[in-house]
Amino acid sequence: MKRKICVISGTRAEYGLLYWLMKEIQEDTELDLQVIVTGMHLSPEFGLTWKQIEKDGFPIHKKVEMLLSSDTPVGITKSMGLGMTGFADAFEELKPDVMLRT
Q1: 11-26 pLDDT per residue, tens
Q2: Which of 79, 82, 84, 81 is nearest to 68 (CA)?
Q3: What is the pLDDT of residues 54-90, one digit of tens each?
Q4: Which phi and psi angles does 33 have, rounded to 5°?
Q5: From CA 97, how far away is CA 78, in angstroms rounded?
Q6: Structural domains of the chain in order of their starting residue, each with its CATH number
Q7: How far apart are CA 7 and CA 98, in angstroms?
Q8: What CA–CA distance (Å, rounded) separates 41 from 89?
């Protein structure tokens, strides 16, 4: 049975660091790559960079919305709440064996 490796990325800079590792996981016949994108990847303000991830050949399994346009303590706390709910749903569905995040 393949081990499911879930890679989580929230920014273009993070993705740049994870790219080659994701390629290696994707090419390994004993591993199953799962990709979750969140944060800035999903923001039109930052160019919807999730599209580049797909263009690079990585299917996106889940998009977790959590970025609000506020950097106040209340806005940040609300973003964290949205993220917790979204990740709980994503992990329940994907059931990864291992999660990686920079």
Answers
A1: 999 999 999 999 999 9
A2: 79
A3: 999 999 999 999 877 778 999 889 989 999 999 999 9
A4: -80, 130
A5: 28
A6: 3-100 (3.40.50.2000)
A7: 9
A8: 19
